[in-house]
Amino acid sequence: MDERRLKELIEEKKYVTLKKELEELNQVDIAELLEKLDVYTALLIFRMLSKDLAVEVFSHFSVEQQRNIIGLVTDKELKYIVEELFFDDMVDIIEEMPANIVKKILKHAKEEERSLINQFLKYPPESAGSIMTIEYVDLKKHMTVGDALNHIKKTGLDKETVYTCYVTDENRKLEGIISLRKLVISDEEKTIEDIMNKDVIYVHTHDDQETVANIFKKYGFLALPVVDKEDRLTGIITVDDIMDVIEQENTEDFQRMAAMAPSEEKYLDTDILTLAKHRILWLLVLMISATFTGRIIMKYEGVLQTIVVLTAFIPMLMDTGGNSGNQSSTLIIRGLALGEIELKDAGKVLWKEFRISVIVGFMLAVINFFRIYLFDTVGPLVAFTVSITLFLTVIISKGIGSLLPMAAKKLNIDPAIMAGPLITTIVDAISLILYFKIATLILGI
Amino acid sequence: MDERRLKELIEEKKYVTLKKELEELNQVDIAELLEKLDVYTALLIFRMLSKDLAVEVFSHFSVEQQRNIIGLVTDKELKYIVEELFFDDMVDIIEEMPANIVKKILKHAKEEERSLINQFLKYPPESAGSIMTIEYVDLKKHMTVGDALNHIKKTGLDKETVYTCYVTDENRKLEGIISLRKLVISDEEKTIEDIMNKDVIYVHTHDDQETVANIFKKYGFLALPVVDKEDRLTGIITVDDIMDVIEQENTEDFQRMAAMAPSEEKYLDTDILTLAKHRILWLLVLMISATFTGRIIMKYEGVLQTIVVLTAFIPMLMDTGGNSGNQSSTLIIRGLALGEIELKDAGKVLWKEFRISVIVGFMLAVINFFRIYLFDTVGPLVAFTVSITLFLTVIISKGIGSLLPMAAKKLNIDPAIMAGPLITTIVDAISLILYFKIATLILGI
């Protein structure tokens, strides 16, 4: 079913067919389709869905659609949604809703859930606590495999995942984990203690979500337990939520590296003032920093007046320097983010980049020499001046491009900030000074 | 256990303790630890591990370590490894190994497996076929839930995942899927046909891995079936492999956007000649393109000689233009990659970027005017010339920055190529022409 078919069926009031065809779709697709209708029609169709499916569809609506629907449904309907939503989805929704709607939602939450919601809202943003959920399968080590499977049979439908189960003691301390695969292939008489995995990898509620994502990537887990300061199991994080985290972290890095304040919102959903605000600060900082380059040029005004053609090569030198530095910084920033490069590799990285820059710089300089000597019809001394500057600029910019991200990491600043735009500004100044020094030396001005 | 403890135990020849402590660890960690030993010691420890664990550890070794180990183990050991490895891991290994080792591996594969390996090696790189595996649970629709669970109990250990099971007919056509969760909570007497999900989302062997990753992200699946041209089930892709794909695709985008040829290899494992080769081409192209900028400056030599101070603002104008364009292109490229922006949004995006660029450009221009008028002590007319050029440069560069990635997408070129470095080069030329035109107009040169 596509949008056209949906609207056709609505127009012809063929609701039975519509319900049947809709319920064959994946909940994500149903949510996507309903977003394309006006809110009243959407609510009409939403109400036709079977109750459990409706809740699932609801959790995939956009924030705006959720707000609209909550504003329109009856108290009874809202109560059902609130009760059936997974806890992490509910917390996410509460975080995004205006106060009056939050109040309406909390009214329908059970007392204990309400205090849990408050606790969850207090976890720092981008922490493990802020992305975990509480619907996990909790087993005891004295249970037999048969008991455990029965327990899952009874409670499994309401759990975010049943594929990894958690074994806790009477104080909620995590004692082990066991996969449903292991349960299914094991003898029913065995106890959980016999077959559970005791060497559990877990994270703390306040760990950064990037750390969590790296653990998922390294081990290929489907879920990861989250414990509090007293090592009590407080929640789990599932792999589907981690995929969002990975993309979010990548998007933030892309944005920082392009000199923007990072934002979680989708581009098309963000208003232009917010977008402008996210961009102006860095542009301003970089523009004002570029003053230095201007000052350097003014200082060497005399040189430029004597040999005006030197001005013509300034953009090429600046751009090549910026691009060279950008290549190095991007690789280092990415390597640091993925954990492929660590601070202790700094020496290795610098040595590597130095050798690369000598090769690359030399080739560029040679090609450049012949290109400008032959086609720009400048004297060999000018061509030589430009080329030797180019060679040194490539080496220096690759050095800066690899050093700055690691220095940032060392100082606990996000390395992504040390990307192209900042390095370009620094490299510009250095390459200009070099250029003029070399020109005065070689051309004897 | 850490590296120090491992080496201590080896030195003191406490092998029983060592084996015990090692086997408590996750297989990924064991592989990581063994990488830190010389290959003979690593092999010694590797041989101590229980056979099944050893195979799992083997699949997590680096390519080099795998090569070393294969070169040293006996034929019998190799046979065991080859038989027990997951099929996708085996294909990955074969792709990376030199011919003599591939021959050695294939000698131990069963006849039917050998022809399957050949088939898998033919899938295009980065296609769904190249990342899928064949170890899935295959059910028939007439089976009861009890039958199915028994089937899983018997065969489940050798499957890449048992959490999603696939229902096929006698011609291997995919008829439905069913989750282990559903099986576990369902009545044992029901047939698979009654409870399976018939509206299956799947991909084809030749679909791009990026498409596959986007489906995983959208639906939060744990596994996805892959069918051939005749809609026969040929394999499955699991979420842990998709996480690697996501990071690989992101890394490629980062590299393309920084004007490099993309590479899958880790930075520290890549030799400097390869790294240099990946960088030089784009640097060369961009360096030669910058010739235009030089030509423009030479053409307006006269203007610069009359008012030398104009040269001082060239770097600032170029950098701000580059940075502005970079911001836009990064957001658009990222939006396109995540599917948040589609080609049909082109008009919306351009209109949005235009309004943002007017706001940002105006603010920068005003601040710039006062800054250079007051601090650089140039006349108001020069300050005005620079500022109006800045304003227009920001608007044009944001326009180009948003247009080029979408044009690339339209032409089926990777939008990531249309990033900062290329846009900077184009914006440089345009902003210089603007600058000189405006200068001659306002300053009457």
From TrEMBL, chains A, B:
It comes from Tepidimicrobium xylanilyticum. The lineage of its organism: Bacteria, Bacillati, Bacillota, Tissierellia, Tissierellales. Residues 196-252 form the CBS domain. It holds the Pfam family MgtE_N. This is Magnesium transporter MgtE. Belongs to the SLC41A transporter family. Acts as a magnesium transporter. PROSITE patterns: CBS. One of its GO terms (cellular component) is plasma membrane.
